[in-house]
Amino acid sequence: MNELQVIKYENTSDKIKQLKSQLPEGKMTLKQLFNFYDARELIMILLIAPFLIPFSIPGSSTPFGILIILLALCEIFNKHFYLPNFVGNYELSHETVEKLFDIIIKALGYIEKIVKPRGKMVKYPKVQKINLFMCIILSILLFLPLPIPFTDFFPAVSILLLLVSNIENDSYLMILGYVMSVVTFFYFYSMGSLGIEIIIRVINYALSYLH
Q1: How many Å is the maximal CA-CA distance in the chain?
Q2: Which of 4, 61, 65, 192 is deepest in the core (most CB within 10 A)?
Q3: How far apart are CA 22 and CA 86, in angstroms?
Q4: 91: which strand partners?
Q5: Do 112 and 104 contact (CB within 8 A), yes or no?
Q6: Which residues of 31-152 form beta strands (DSSP E)?
Q7: Predicted model pTM
Q8: Each residue of 15-43: pLDDT tens digit?
Q9: What's the count of helices (H) and strands (E) in the chain, helices before strands?
Q10: Using an 8 Å Cβ cutoff, are 44 and 156 in contact?
């Protein structure tokens, strides 16, 4: 009698841990990181790690945001990935890369408590591409030089939820990702309105001294 072969299910954090176990020693550029790991969505997940903590890696917002956008575009249009030198040459220490892995593994640990394959919606390729397009829009928000708390955190969480929903085929998590995206857009809108109001008040206050 043949024994049944048990196939172990690997969630996203398991895959990320496998990538971490293959991490080479020494410094790495973003280009080397991409060439070393041939898994676009997993790299995108790794790249949002700095935005999930209060203190991001200095100068990481632009190159990481650009790389997320480029990777998403390549996934959407199924094209070969080209990495510009000014992004690809961005260098990370071994300790920094390890920290990125640790942050994202911890974040996934919370999310995967509620994640499982469910619903049919996210299984459609067109829906997954729409999710990636939303990730592009959210990544653009990471570029905005706003000295306001959580302007990196909210888009990053939204991107993480949408990417994991694609990988895990979880339609409910995808819906949660869009709810978080709406919260993100509302937060940016409210902060923008508040910023404009503050600027107007400062200008009026300054003009009052001229009269």
Answers
A1: 97
A2: 65
A3: 26
A4: 29
A5: no
A6: 91-92
A7: 0.84
A8: 899 888 888 888 888 888 877 766 788 88
A9: 9, 2
A10: no
